């Protein structure tokens, strides 16, 4: 577990921003991944919310080996198995009930289990997890929640996701217990429907710049 924990921490810290993408076709997956990569975001979370998701994950790992891809919306052991078989580099969950936590602890891959309350984070900590997702971050207190967790859970690090935008990204990244922020603000549904991938690329580039600036100020 500690080595996998270190790998999870390293890849989140390296990413800084984790775009959360949901795709409906393989072409859309290619176009979005390319736009994010061109914008400077080479790590992404691809959610298992659509029927094509596992095929898209496998295709991207084959065709875009330079992109680090986490499977998101991992809800059960079947999702874990399918994601690993498709080549996922890591796994992300929106929440982590005990059975899923056990299955994640047994999976030989970096994982970022999600939770929303101190008690849930403490349950994950008991199983050895130290790098977790705070979801849905803004709805459960956002920055105030992260500051509150920093004292008692001082050895835990977080990837807040949910409600983060270009406007508040820097503030989240400036929290010492934040390794990375997740979100879909660079993947606006209307831009995707319009095929406006340039807008995705530009917003991704601004997100990458926010990470660089936040790092320079730490
Ligand atoms: O389901 C939502 C994603 O996890 C990211 O949240 P967001 O769309 O508020 O950035
Ligand atoms: C909430 C999220 O990003 C997930 O579905 O894993």
Automatic annotation (TrEMBL):
Single GO MF annotation: 2-dehydro-3-deoxy-phosphogluconate aldolase activity
KW Disulfide bond (keyword) present: no
Domain Response regulatory: residue ranges: 1-108
PROSITE patterns noted in UniProt: ALDOLASE_KDPG_KHG_1 (PS00159), RESPONSE_REGULATORY (PS50110)
Enzyme class name: lyase
Protein's GO biological process: phosphorelay signal transduction system
Annotated keywords: Carbohydrate metabolism, Lyase
Superkingdom of this protein's organism: Bacteria
Cell inner membrane recorded as keyword: no
Catalysis: reaction(s): 2-dehydro-3-deoxy-6-phospho-D-gluconate = D-glyceraldehyde 3-phosphate + pyruvate
UniProt-listed Enzyme Commission number(s): 4.1.2.14
SUPFAM superfamilies tied to this protein: Aldolase
Pathway: Carbohydrate acid metabolism; 2-dehydro-3-deoxy-D-gluconate degradation; D-glyceraldehyde 3-phosphate and pyruvate from 2-dehydro-3-deoxy-D-gluconate: step 2/2
Subunit structure: Homotrimer.
NCBIfam families recorded: eda, PRK05718.1
Protein family (similarity comment): Belongs to the KHG/KDPG aldolase family.
Name by which UniProt lists this protein: 2-dehydro-3-deoxy-phosphogluconate aldolase
Species assigned in the record: Luteimonas chenhongjianii
């Amino acid at each position: 577990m500690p080595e996998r924990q270190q790998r999870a921490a390293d890849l989140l810290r390296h990413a800084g921003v984790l775009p959360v993408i949901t795709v409906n076709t393989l072409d859309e997956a290619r176009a979005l991944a390319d736009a994010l990569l061109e914008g400077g975001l080479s790590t992404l979370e691809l959610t298992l919310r659509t029927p094509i998701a596992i095929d898209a994950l496998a295709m991207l790992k084959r065709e875009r080996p330079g992109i680090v891809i986490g499977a998101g919306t991992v809800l059960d052991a079947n999702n874990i198995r399918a994601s690993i078989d498709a080549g996922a580099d890591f796994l992300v969950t929106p929440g982590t009930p005990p059975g899923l936590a056990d299955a994640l602890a047994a999976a030989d891959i970096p994982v970022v289990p999600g939770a929303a309350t101190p008690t849930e984070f403490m349950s994950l900590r008991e199983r050895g997890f130290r790098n977790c997702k705070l979801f849905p971050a803004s709805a459960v207190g956002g920055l105030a929640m992260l500051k509150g967790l920093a004292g008692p859970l001082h050895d835990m690090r977080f990837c807040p996701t949910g409600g983060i935008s270009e406007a508040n990204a820097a503030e989240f990244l400036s929290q010492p217990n934040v390794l990375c922020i997740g979100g879909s603000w660079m993947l606006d549904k209307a831009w995707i429907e319009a095929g406006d991938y340039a807008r995705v690329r530009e917003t991704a580039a601004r997100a990458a710049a926010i990470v660089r600036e936040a790092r320079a100020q730490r």
